Structure formats: C-alpha cells, structure tokens
From TrEMBL:
Keywords: ATP-binding, Nucleotide-binding, Transport. This is ABC transporter ATP-binding protein. Gene3D superfamilies: P-loop containing nucleotide triphosphate hydrolases (3.40.50.300). CDD domains: ABC_MJ0796_LolCDE_FtsE. It holds the Pfam family ABC_tran. Belongs to the ABC transporter superfamily. InterPro entries: AAA+_ATPase, ABC_transporter-like_ATP-bd, ABC_transporter-like_CS, ABC_transpr_LolD-like, MacB-like_ATP-bd, P-loop_NTPase. One of its GO terms (molecular function) is ATP binding. PANTHER family: IMPORT ATP-BINDING PROTEIN, LIPOPROTEIN-RELEASING SYSTEM ATP-BINDING PROTEIN LOLD. The keyword Nucleotide-binding applies.
Length: 226
C-alpha cells in the first residue's frame, strides 16, 4: 500500500489561556489514503477546527507529527509550509471566501497562477472545473451575481484547481439550505472521488456523513470511530 496522503502521529495541541494551558488534542492519530473520504463529526469545542488547521499546516503541533505523502511537514518553516499547502492541499470552508472583485473564472485562475501555472493553462483548468460543476455559463459573473450554492461550487472548484492530493473541508455546505446543500455535496463527492483525492470533511449533518467512506469523531483529544 502506498503512503497515506495524510497521517497524524500522536499529535498534540495546547492553547494558553488565562487559566493555564488548555489541551485540545492529546495524541490524536489519523490516516487518509488517496481516494478516501472521511467525515469528521464532533461537537463544537472538541477540536475539529484545530485538527483541520494542523492537517492543513495552518498551525504547528505541540507534539507528534503531521505527514503529507509520508513526509514530515508539521514543523517546516513558514515558506516551505506555504509552498506545500499550495501544491498539495485544497481548502473549503463554510463561507466561500471568494474574491468579490473577480469573476468566478478568475477566482479559480488566481491560485493556480500563484502556484506558477501559466495564465492560459490556468484558465483552461478553471473552465474545465466550472463545466464539471455546471457553471460554465456563470464563468464571467462575480460572486455577488451568484447564488449561495453557486458561490460554494466555485469555492470547491478553486480548492481542486491545483490538483491537490488532500482536500480539507470545514462544514462546506453548512451555510446552504437543505436542498441546495444536498446538490452541492453530491457534486463535491463526485469531483473528489473522480480526482482520487483524500478528503477530510467536518460536518454536523449525519446524512452527509453517512455518504462518506467512514466517520470519525474526537473524544478526549483523540480521533476515534464515530
């Protein structure tokens, strides 16, 4: 078996508060293989976002290690972490965070160009993704002219633009109504499975979680089967 796309080894994370240190993760372990989609379902305040931030190299662990494609990455320098995030990790959040002054197409082109892709190739990739999400006719529209579901589909396309091996999503449909959420999530799963991406998706929705390959939760700072 090949190296997991993501592996957390005995990861610890603590925050300092006025009352002292607050342990959030205590020896958390998790492994995601290419093509595997895992739901992270846990109550608020148990460390879901912290786990995603560590997996996405947005925070450093206080103990243990974060490995991306088998390579230790948790304690890399800022520049190396930034480069690795751009090339290997895609992010989707509850709110789309699209750049309002740019079109749907441009929002998908820009992160590719930041990663060194030529503009023409980036635009071709963006059009391909928009077509796949049923948004080809909306390519020239700015976010303000898109519905909530359309904005989130553009955000998902943007996350996949650089062909990451790992996708991290924090309540990606939590800001949508039920019917729109179901459609957007179905397209997210289809796109991720089609690309063979490993995905860790935090959600409060048990119906969405049940559509993934397995479900995990956080208990006393550790990752356990839900």
């Amino acid at each position: 078996m090949s190296e997991p796309r993501l592996r957390l080894e005995k990861v610890e994370r603590r925050y300092r508060t006025e009352a002292g240190e607050l342990p959030v993760l205590s020896g958390a372990e998790l492994s995601l293989q290419a093509g595997e989609i895992v739901a992270l379902v846990a109550p608020s305040g148990t460390g879901k976002s912290t786990l995603l931030h560590l997996a996405g190299l947005l925070e450093r662990p206080d103990g243990g290690e974060v490995l991306i494609d088998g390579k230790p990455a948790g304690r890399l320098g800022d520049e190396a972490r930034s480069v690795l995030r751009g090339k290997s990790i895609g992010f989707v959040y509850q709110f789309h965070h699209l750049l309002p002054e740019f079109t749907a197409l441009e929002n998908i082109v820009i992160p590719q160009m930041v990663n060194g892709v030529a503009e023409a190739a980036a635009a071709n990739r963006a059009r391909e993704l928009l077509q796949g999400f049923g948004l080809a006719e909306r390519a020239g529209h700015r976010p303000g002219r898109l519905s909530g579901g359309e904005q989130q589909r553009v955000a998902i396309a943007r996350a996949l633009a650089n062909r990451p091996g790992l996708l991290l999503a924090d309540e990606p449909t939590g800001n949508l109504d039920v019917s729109t959420s179901d459609r957007v999530f179905a397209q997210l799963l289809e796109a991720v499975r089609g690309a063979g991406v490993a995905a860790l998706i935090a959600t409060h929705n048990p119906d969405l979680a049940a559509r993934m390959d397995r479900v995990v939760t956080l208990r006393e700072g550790r990752v356990v089967p839900a």
